[in-house]
Amino acid sequence: GGGAVVGIAGFPPGTLAVWLRARVETLAERIRGSGRPSLRGKPPEEEVEELLREREPIYRSLAGFVLDTDDLRPAEAAAEVLSALGSP
What we know:
The chain is of the alpha+beta class. The protein has one domain (15-84): P-loop containing nucleotide triphosphate hydrolases (Rossmann fold, 3-Layer(aba) Sandwich), CATH 3.40.50. The chain contains three helices and two strands, in the order βααβα. Strands 1-2 form a two-stranded parallel ribbon. The longest helix is centred in the middle third of the chain and has 19 residues, at 44-62.
């Protein structure tokens, strides 16, 4: 999940991190539709805003590629990542 990068200084050489970025509203809607419990006991929008305030600088510093996923289905996002990596 998004917390996987918290507390690490970087990745081994040759590693490419991809940030699958989305707007707060999109992320909150995805959380509501997932059935997952809240991490912090707050409404999804508030929770996402807090997490992004904490994590966005980390994501930005580690990401070698950023993909905005608001309007993409999972298969489309995967195809975009593969294309960016130069895969057929």
